[in-house]
Write a structure and sequence with these properties.
17% strand; 11 helices; homohexamer; 316 residues; alpha+beta
């Protein structure tokens, strides 16, 4: 099995298909136009330059097209760059498609949906169960395809559902140790906490923020939808307010985007579960690319810390 | 005209009716029970002690009753206290009622409603006008009676509407200087920005927070209601999102309770207008009780500063 | 079974034995001396005044003595106080002892030790296992008796070991979900993270800070002991540094007392586990005393938030 | 009428006169020298490269000279750049002068002075009026020519006076709503608050900070001048202290450069007026270049937020 | 020699003259008036209550009178209080005067002036020397009598000059180690840095802030006076700006009251010298009252830390 | 005597030997490889490019080799760069060695050791003296060679010992003014406070952090070593704890890396002495390169301030 482009070392030859994520025209210091390509496969992305390009090249090598590349990995100002020796657009005969180049969750959409559904099935509180089921159904396709964020953690296809599934497992494990926790409320909060991202973000590929996402945010959007769902299902119960509170408070602090801090035991734990899963994802993926006895790069969402991979740890 | 109890100086005699705001039973250091009364009239409130009280006194002098008091204003640990010499419950013959003792806005509810209505009438954008009119109508009675806050500023009967009216005047004056401002959006935002307080707070007297108010807050509650009103009135337009954004962002920063910072020109100005009116209210009321050439007490919501009343200023 | 003194409501009669936690002499406003007693049983503590006391009373009613009290629970400035009607020192015939009045962990010392030992037994890394076993053995008695803190969370007899046991359960549950975690290192870090408290604190009763505790702190003290233990056991391996790092970084940030932030996956998770268990303990104990549909008091170590007990939750 | 260079889109041809703001010599990767020119007209500035330049070009194309340029607007690393095709120095026959290329306030110096003078004329307090008139006269030329800042807001010729005029309008409008404000003190504070910038900054073109400006700052410099003016005019009155306080406190907080926070009602409002006008200037100029339905770039002085231009708003 | 009242331990008898610093009337829980006296001698102050007082006592025992007291030191809510057994006003025959009870610097005014003068004499830069000499002369009496602050450090008679003298010694010692420091500028800055306090504060006894002190502050006041002195002495040199900068920046940060941070080597060191002397004064005075092996109380101006007195240190 | 490369002005010719600090391969925009060399002598470092390089050049011009260079100093994006005209590797005949190119302290290692030893000799407390002597001896070679930091201050050969010597002089001078300071404890703390850097850092050249340095830090490492030394020397005395406290607290605040804030008079002063010497070193070295009447660049470790060199100051 071929390793991805980001696993190549400096000096190594690379020859394979890649997806053009973005293509930007520039003018070189000799006055001639060139293209800066951001190329990606499932392992991540790498920059490349295409020199002396004209109108035709700009058309051929634009974003979301697939190319076959032969090149050498070099180091430019501390970041890896691919020095292109040969390049051609992919043809139908090559039998490659866009999804071959997008990082996706290690579990399939069906598996993710099955696991989430089984947690909903286990709920005993009918109000929470009905609201949760209704909203998951309403947004099901996006829920299973969207990333959990545009960067930092779970920024891959199906990242959102994969994040939720691991949080549900944490919720179950922790509730087993602290029986005072209301699992129905907690599971419901876990499943819905980031579901507003299906409105906040543009989609699973080249993800950006929508206008609504920018101006209102996934937290307020989902609190809204819960209230509306309760109206539609004619549910008038304190649980509606509690569930809205879990969504509103799951970032824990005002400066992190929550208009209310957690004021329910389950809201406090939801925030912790969310953090643990996001942080494990960030650390695992950074340490995977690090050699034993070395440190990762500084990880911005981990308060800009770098992490050490013990020298006795097996390379993964 | 009689000045209120909080305008009395230490050593002065006071003889008038007062409303009992709260009454708490204590046990004195000699082992005998006593009552701590918080007494109020329109000028504000003062503490008093009633010694050697029994079950009967506790019943007679409980909260929301009116009493006739003869006493002397003394100073206890830097705060004024009323030393009671004589006290009796008011009788129907006294012809006094609870509202005589509550501070209220200087404008009547009708005047406030008229002024707000004329701003709605002037709006040219039908979406904003319909949503605003619908929500004002829905909450009209509470809107005209509630305070704008439980403490700090406009904490009196009709304080919310009085605050809104002054903000509307500021909005009009400022828009006259900066024609790029969209007055329809700004007026609409001013009128609705705190309307969620009618759900967040318990009412105009002895105001506390409701459970919904604590767990969701007036900001999220009103953003919700705007979305729902748009659904009911079948309005699908960007203005709905813009108006929700004005409400969500009017506290400006996450640490002050807004899940989103202002990202519209009108949202930024709404935040400034809200501050100016709240701060003028706080400063005016504190300086009114201060002699020329002296400083007010430290004002907590003004970053704990004290303010100076110039020695050439006429006492108000 | 009798409920404790802190579960009495205002106005209720109380008649039982209590331990004097502290006794302070004062002079009343009538010039006569009196004693302020802090009385406790397993449910918590309550203040009481003893009026017109002389040298004899001061001797009889000093700290760590047990008394039989008849009194009434009253409210003084918002806090409960016990109004004493009768009081007498306990006699040997009463058959009560100091430990009857101290709050203790719900598990016995033997159970706690067994559970901790089984985790040590499961370790596969001989270096971590030997260091951990050696240090647990060295401090065994204090480890099983000390509280985890002087206030805020697990501030009861055996609180430290009880806290560690629950953290171990969390560590096991979370490692089951994220197989990249090194359980030997994580268990070892959990067991030792607060063991320096047996030097930092004075003991299980009337706990205060020692001079060493104040000047060096439990974090540096234990990092020290790990290094020394490694020397004694002649262990030269990177694991010694890793384990020291887990202890040093478990408060996560400099402003919370850690000289280094977590730079190991296990260090990051240790910090989260520590927080979850401390916070569950604080919330559970506060909500236990709160009625459904009401809020707890503001909880200082929970960023001064108050927590809501849903109205549908059964009273515990 | 020709639109400015910064309004050109990528790919567009540009042919017009431009002012060289700065010219820096570099050595290209082929070892040959080149010039980096910063070119400007009233609409703003754009970078351009001049390749293979020698001593003669360096002399011809230095700062503050005017050139005629033919070129194409390109995109270089996300910023616009002008690719020069032809360039020549302007000649006297071209009839262009430096001021044609500097952004200036929309009102003339005479209009600005007239409006400011009328506010001074309206003052009733002779002390404030005399001090204000004296200082405006003393610094009149610079006051009418200087920008209000080197960047962020009103950074154009006559920006200072233009800023003051709009603040005076705000002061008048707000005082009309809150009659407790002392307009004489407020107008005086508005007019003098930034007048120290005429000493702090170097002048209207290529504005930098003077040594005095760096070491003392415009706030302390003007507080000084007020005291000195009072001495010269033999005014001994509390108003001198009040006016100095308005100047000292107008940045509101220590961390923003004010040695004292506002402690006068007028000082508090001065700070708000200053902010509103600066922020409207920043937002208006950024939104002017933004298309409906899009966001501005992140605006550093607006806490790095981006602002949305509603899709229904007419392009300005 | 008699030790002061604050050195008495709880339970000890005290019999001596004391100065009444303040006297406040209260009403006891039995309804009778009483006086709260704050009594002081050179060692510090202690509270006392005088029960059942009438108009006559209020007149006899008012602030700034001297009394002979017999009493016992007791503990009230953790603070020492003097339980008065006998009290009488001092008579002329007693031969005591107010200054006997005020804490004063350990050096006489003449000694302090001599030492400061010798530093001025040593200056080689005539501009700095003349400005410094002129301002010291102008404020000489207040300079030698005022405290350096109303609380926290050097809050005693002649505290300001005593603080300056020790800072001059530090300046000399440090300049001996770092020859790049300009001693003339540094000495001048040390001598003038707090001289504005003679305008900011009301005087050496019962020190409060003046209106000018509150609204302008000692930093701006003295920067002003330096500029004015330079005008009067017809000095036009950069040193005037440098010296003003030292005064303006000596609190180092905006949030601590400096409108500019240090931008001169000497300004940076002035700030450090100021801190070292203030902190040594606070620590020395707190540790003087602490027994070996114990901690001081928490010291607010030392970031609320408590300090340890080693058990091997001799009691002072 | 030849001045160093960093003292050359733009346009100046440079011809001398330089040490290659680092050498990085890049690919130019024309597709050909080149080397980016960082060249240094005792005055500092400068970047240079070597175009059209092949495998041979990469071998010849790698890090830690010495070269003879003829070139011209140019300006590239605001930073100086050396444009190479001729370059050749140094040969044994050139008689140059690596240490000729490293910045070193102005005092020799022997002088530094002598001065430190004399302070140890003067100590009267045998415990502190023995521990200090033992640890200095143990780490003597590294102590005399290491820098005090990797950047910011004293980042040169013998920087650590040079820093300590100046701090000892400050300690002596300040103790002369405040006799309450315990000089033995203070000297001991000064000498050991940063000694852990000999474990934390990799060495005097191309200094980086070791794994232990990253995970534990010099503060915890040295606190550890003090405890161990006391064990080895069989010293059981409070001084061991006090000395550990000085080391632990010398960064003063948690956010700056100290697990405990200073709680001893000597610990507080140690922190101030450390700061004064570091800051004098930074300011002196920056001002040395600045012309009179100009400002330094912004200095990051001085809170990003720039410093002014008065126009009357002689250039150094």
């Amino acid at each position: 099995m071929k390793k991805g482009v980001t696993f190549c070392e400096v000096g190594e030859q690379f020859s394979d298909f890649l997806l053009i994520k973005s293509s930007t025209r520039g003018v070189a210091s000799n006055g001639k136009p060139f293209l800066t390509l951001m190329l990606q496969d499932k392992s991540g992305e790498i920059e490349a330059k295409l020199w002396d390009t004209g109108a035709e090249e700009e058309k051929t090598y634009h974003a979301e097209n697939i190319v076959k590349v032969l090149g050498e990995v070099t180091n430019y100002r501390g970041r890896q760059q691919l020095k292109i020796k040969k390049i051609r657009p992919a043809t139908p005969q090559d039998g490659v498609s866009v999804t071959d180049f997008l990082e996706t969750a290690p579990q399939s959409k069906d598996e993710l949906l099955d696991e989430i559904t089984s947690y909903i099935f286990d709920m005993k509180n009918p109000h929470l169960q009905r609201i949760t089921r209704h909203l998951v159904k309403k947004h099901q396709q996006a829920f299973l395809e969207y990333p959990a964020a545009t960067k930092n953690h779970h920024e891959f296809v199906s990242g959102l559902a994969y994040h939720v599934v691991h949080m549900l497992r944490l919720a179950k494990a922790i509730s087993g140790i602290y029986p005072s926790l209301n699992t129905d409320l907690l599971y419901s909060g876990v499943i819905l906490h980031d579901l507003g991202k299906t409105t906040e973000l543009s989609g699973p590929v080249s993800t950006t923020y929508t206008v609504e996402g920018n101006l209102l945010g996934h937290i307020s959007l989902m609190a809204n939808e819960i209230a509306q769902t309760a109206l539609e299902l004619d549910i008038q119960a304190e649980e509606v307010t509690l569930l809205q509170h879990l969504v509103l408070s799951h970032h824990s602090k005002g400066e992190w985007g929550s208009p209310k801090p957690p004021m329910l035991r389950e809201a406090e734990i939801l925030h912790y579960i969310d953090n643990i899963d996001a942080r494990m994802n960030i650390m695992d993926r950074a340490l995977e690319r690090t050699k034993p006895g070395e440190f990762t790069e500084r990880l911005f969402p981990m308060e800009n810390r770098k992490f050490y991979k013990p020298s006795t740890e097996n390379e993964s």
